[in-house]
Amino acid sequence: MDFVSDALGDGRKFRTLTLVDDLTRECPAIEVDFSLPGERVVRVLDRVAAERGYPKVIVCDNGPEFRGETLDQWAHRHGVVLDFIDPGKPIQNAYIESFNGRFRDECLNENWFVSLVDAQGTIEAWRVDYETARPHSGLADRTPAEYARELAGSFGESRPPHLPSAPRSAPDPYPSTSAIAAASAFSNAVATSATTPPSSLPTPTGLT
User: Fold this and answer.
1) Is the pLDDT of residue 206 over 60?
2) What is the distance between the alpha carbons of residues 4 and 165, in angstroms, rounded to a whole number?
3) Whether pLDDT at 172 is above 50
4) How far apart are CA 171 and CA 177, in angstroms?
5) Parallel/antiparallel/unpaired status of strands 81-84 and 57-60
6) What is the DSSP letter of 139?
7) Structural contact between residues 131 and 27, judged by C-beta atoms closer than 8 angstroms
8) How many C-beta atoms surround the C-beta of residue 207 within 10 A?
9) Which pTM was predicted?
10) Rounded to whole angstroms, what are the CA distances from 178 to 6, 114, 124, 174, 188?
11) Chain mean position to CA 170
């Protein structure tokens, strides 16, 4: 697991907690909020464990949310080993680093989020698409959900994919109306760009 940061259209920073199964390449959750302390990390892990059971090992870096007492006690209570990578050695957690790169390129860099609710919904939709519609060469051209079902079937188990599409994080209590208006102006500008000279296109608030 790891953190990835981004920003809303109005400049407010938000964080995402990403989880990846190293065997099946599944992404059981991407938690999105302005703040994700250790207590929030534990809640996400418990939520995923309620669906699939607790993992034996979690690989993570040395960030304060992962090194803190909250996660340490949670891991001890549930018999989970926290495998911390060496400082400055992200390659030791290669699967999550690869996933985060794809997540940033295909989702974060391709979208302009007008509110936290917008970010939560867009990111969850991308996660479900990744889980169910993106074949991986490392999984013999199967999606993570397909591979997980086949693997579970070989052990006589039933394993549905992680498919809840409603945002699971708390909604943004302060949506930015100026950012929403800017997004609308920007969308209108793009829609008319094919027939309107570039010099006459409107410039939305907050964009240059």
Assistant:
1) no
2) 20
3) no
4) 15
5) parallel
6) G
7) yes
8) 13
9) 0.75
10) 19, 9, 24, 11, 15
11) 15
- In terms of residues, how long is the chain? 208
Amino acid identity, position 122: T
CA distance 39 to 89: 26
DSSP state of 90: G
Residue with tokens 């969850």: 124
What whole-number distance in Å separates Cα of residue 59 and Cα of residue 96? Answer: 9
pLDDT at 171: 45
Query: What is the rounded CA–CA span in Å between residue 77 and residue 71?
Result: 10
CA distances in angstroms from 25 to 22, 28, 64, 184, listed in the order given: 5, 9, 25, 36
Residue 47 per-residue DSSP state: H
pLDDT confidence band for 166 (50 / 70 / 90)? very low
The Cα 45–Cα 48 span in angstroms is 5
Strand partners, 18: 2, 30
